[in-house]
Amino acid sequence: MYDGLTMKNGRLINERPNGITGIQEALNIKKTLKRAEKIQMYSEAVSLGVQKAENVEDMNEMFLK
Predict the structure, then answer these.
(1) Which of 7-16, 32-41, 56-65 has the lowest mean pLDDT?
(2) Which of 5, 9, 18, 65 is most buried per CB count within 10 Å?
């Protein structure tokens, strides 16, 4: 009934293995990687947008002089 539980200084210490299966852990890793890829893609898009906006401003300054 108390497998994996020990008493230490009057407190119950849980030394049981986590309840996540290998399949669930793999799914969590896959989900994390997919989210990281989306964040990377979004940051690259924002960076390109900023660069294009700066180029347009530079071109406008050249032609309006």
Answers:
(1) 56-65
(2) 5
Residue 5, H or E segment: strand 5-8
Rounded mean pLDDT of 21-37? Answer: 95
Amino acid occupying residue 24: Q
Tokens of 19: 């309840």
The residues, any chain, with a CB within 8 Å of residue 42's CB and separated by 6 or more, are none
Six-digit token string for 52: 């294009």
Q: Whose structure tokens read 């989306």?
A: 38
Whole-angstrom distance, CA of residue 50 vs CA of residue 53:
5
The 10 Å Cβ neighbour count of residue 59 is 10
Cβ–Cβ under 8 Å, residues 12 and 5: yes
Return the number of other C-beta atoms located less than 10 Å from residue 4's C-beta: 9
